[in-house]
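Q: Given only this backbone (124 positions), what sequence would you predict?
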């Protein structure tokens, strides 16, 4: 079972502001915080997400094909999280909308470090 996803950052304060904004829309806050690492979510709840400066001290880079998916409970919340991401330094990778015909509704974006995320809900 997945506990949390960690994404690298080269600017933890900037990442903190970005993830604080989308976590707030999702109804959670910071659950763990250290000098080089912050995690958002709820202990014992759904899997969380974390931003960290790489342990090895090297520059954080984006993994090609790597994406974290954040699940919410409505299409309105998909749009709200996506809008919060864009308003807080994220970039568009696909506006919210249905994908396919199986009830998958998602919006795609990158955080300020270039990490790709999506926010989704199932409508069926």
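A: Predicted residues:
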């Amino acid at each position: 079972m997945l506990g949390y996803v960690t994404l690298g950052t080269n600017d933890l304060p900037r990442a903190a502001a970005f993830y604080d904004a989308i976590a707030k829309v999702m109804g959670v806050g910071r659950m763990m915080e250290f000098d080089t690492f912050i995690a958002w979510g709820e202990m014992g709840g759904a899997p969380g997400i974390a931003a960290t400066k790489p342990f090895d001290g090297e520059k954080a880079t984006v993994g090609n094909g790597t994406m974290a998916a954040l699940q919410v409970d409505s299409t309105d919340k998909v749009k709200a999280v996506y809008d919060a991401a864009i308003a807080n330094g994220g970039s568009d990778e696909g506006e919210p909308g249905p994908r396919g015909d199986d009830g998958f509704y998602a919006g795609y974006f990158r955080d300020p470090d270039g990490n790709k995320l999506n926010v989704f809900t199932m409508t069926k």
